[in-house]
Amino acid sequence: MQVELEKVFGRPRTLRPVATHYCPGCGHGITARLVAEVIDELEVREKTVGVAPVGCSVLLYNYLDIDMYEAAHGRAPAVATGCKRVHPELVVFTYQGDGDFASIGIAEAVHAAARGEKITTVFINNAIYGMTGGQMAPTTLIGQKTTTSPMGRNPEQAGFPIRMAELLATLDGAAYIARVAVNNPKHIIQAKRAIKKAFETQVKSLGYSMVEVLSQCPTDWRMTPIEATKWVEEKMVPYYPLGEFKVSKEG
Amino acid sequence: MEKKFMTGNEAIAEAAIQAGCRYFFGYPITPQSEIPEYMSKRLPEVGGVYLQSESEVAAINMLFGAAGAGARVMTSSSSPGISLMQEGISYIAAAQLPCVIVNIMRGGPGLGGIQPSQSDYFQATKGGGHGDYHLLVLAPHTVQEAVSLTMEAFGLADKYRNPVMVLGDGYMGQMMEPVEFKQTAPLKLPAKEWALTGAKGRAKNLVKSLYLDPEALEKHNLEINRKIQEVIKNEVRVETYGTDDAEVIIAAYGTVARIAKTAIEVLREKGVKVGMVRPITVFPFPYETLEKMADKVSKFLVVEMSLGQMVEDVKLGLCGKAKLRFYGRTGGMVPSYDEIVAETEKLMKEAS
């Protein structure tokens, strides 16, 4: 006897069936999947263009089954701007880490938001430079040890971590700004909702949208994956509060 | 056809529009700001987009995005701004994207000044950014030639999927001359099937420059080089005149070539047999023309608005067969024709 089983879970169409290079316990794989699910649900895969940056985020172009650029370090919002201005009907998003978005590319980030560029940014904040082996990021917490802040980040010498969501929310061109985390199932569900809202903001042409994702980096934090998810909760969330910082009235 | 009286900057901007350029991203800098100003007014009239970027760094990456999306796109700047674009230019060449970059050169190094110069020759012709690549570099010497070369630049960029630079100077940008916009037959070009337009009914496209496997990167670089070798074979352009009976030849490009032409008239009136070689493409450089000339003429004078950059290419072309003298002014100083006359006369007196 043949039993018809209802399919309740599967790989998103937009996610290619390949192994990723992400370390065990990393938040990138979860976030990349959420982006793929949102693209599927909005039925925009064939009109979506992504921009991958420099850093751990770069190889996203191997994982998503959509047209993609690989941009210079920090320049993804400028590249996305060039694409979106040529093809306003496309859905264009950047996927950037904290070094890319909050340090070397902060001018492009701020001005894309200020212009109300109708693009979306998924910003992975894991408070460290992952691909280069764990150096200090602009979002590294006070006291956090990295390979270039071996005694812990000292604000006297290395300044303070940047809160990108709060910063961009002050700009009139920003239509949707939120901060989420991917360290537990509840937060992952909230993260997907925010990413979907950000993409919808673009589809409705309301302005710039950005979701900051607090993400764990067990390898460079020198922790187990479980410890890393706890560190997000106990150390990152108090400094980087979760929530929506800007929601368009029309959204 | 009706002639219009325009500055070089305005004429370059209009030429781009006539060539089908519909997207311009740039940042103001003297002495080329008339190009973005003209574009900001003209592009909306033809259904295009003008966008003032937050920096030259952003502008060149907006070109990367627009060119990757399949558009005809241009930026313009002047020396310090072009320096800021070098990283992006390297990425554009690596990703094999067509676009046009105009450099209206001013005096450097550093912030330098705002007067005309040719001191970005090395940067333009030898790479500028990191890695193995070359731009095609077109160097007009009149406003009319700036128009025709700008119009052709877009076709060349598409043909070779490589960035093309129009290399002028502050004099060229600010000078007014009557010009006409003659359409030439468009090149037969393949459709841009590699462009990012959304993967509808086809496999995904990827615009990138990252090749972590050295074997793959070498293969990629060799493919770029294969195109550059085609460029060298097919696209060299050079003007020569008065070379048949010449005893001395002046080599110059751009604005300096105009001044040298006046110097040649004066010298000819004095009975000095002087000719000229003027590279129109400074990459690819007309090495063969120079080598052939060196078989007949034993003395060459190179004049530049720099402390000696193109002179190195002339030297390579001459293969040590002729005597070479260099005369350059720098920092925004423009050589006068009588200075070139005097330098030529000095060279004539020297033993071969």
CATH superfamily of chain A: Thiamin diphosphate (ThDP)-binding fold, Pyr/PP domains
> N- to C-terminal separation of chain A?
50 Å
Q: pLDDT under 50 segments of chain A (min length 5)?
A: none
Specify the oligomeric state.
heterodimer
Indicate the structural class of chain B: alpha/beta
- What low-confidence regions of chain B span 5 or more consecutive residues with pLDDT below 50? none
Number of strands of chain A: 7
| Helix and strand element order of chain A | HEHEHEHHEHHEHEHHE
Mean pLDDT figure of chain B: 97
Q: Quote the distance from N terminus to C terminus of chain B.
A: 49 Å
Total helical segments of chain A: 10
Assign a percent range to the helix content of chain B.
40-55%
Class of secondary structure makeup of chain A: alpha/beta
Identify the overall geometry of chain A. globular
Number of domains of chain B: 2
**What string gives the helices and strands of chain B in order?**
EHEHEHEHEHEHEHEEHEEHEEHEHEH
Rg calc of chain B: 21 Å
CATH architectural type of the largest domain in chain B: 3-Layer(aba) Sandwich
Proper CATH architecture of chain A: 3-Layer(aba) Sandwich
Describe this structure in words.
- The complex is a heterodimer of chains A (251) and B (352).
- With 251 residues, chain A is α/β, with parallel strands linked by helices.
- Chain A has a single domain (28-247), classed as 3-Layer(aba) Sandwich (Rossmann fold).
- Helix content of chain A is 37%, strand content 17%.
- Chain A contains ten helices and seven strands.
- A seven-stranded mixed β-sheet of chain A has the order 2-1-3-4-6-5-7, with helices on both faces.
- In chain A, α1 packs across α8 and α4 packs across α5.
- Chain A is globular, with a radius of gyration of 18 Å.
- The model of chain A has no long low-confidence stretch (mean pLDDT 97).
- Chain B is of the alpha/beta class.
- Chain B contains twelve helices and 15 strands.
- Chain B has helices spanning 8-18, 34-45, 56-68, 79-94, 121-126, 143-160, 170-174, 214-234, 254-269, 287-294, 310-318, 337-349; strands at 4-7, 23-26, 49-52, 73-77, 100-105, 136-138, 164-169, 176-179, 206-207, 238-241, 248-251, 274-279, 281-283, 299-304, 323-328.
- In chain B, the strands form three sheets. Chain B has a seven-stranded mixed β-sheet with strand order 3-2-4-5-7-6-13, with helices on both faces.
- In chain B, β2 (23-26), α2 and β3 (49-52) form a beta-alpha-beta unit.
- In chain B, α1 packs parallel to α6 (143-160), α3 (56-68) packs parallel to α4 and α10 (287-294) crosses α11 (310-318).
- The longest helix of chain B is centred in the middle third of the chain and has 21 residues, at 214-234.
- The radius of gyration of chain B is 21 Å and the shape is globular.
- Chain B starts with a strand and ends with a helix.
- The mean pLDDT of chain B is 97.
- The interface between A and B is medium-sized, with 32 and 38 residues.
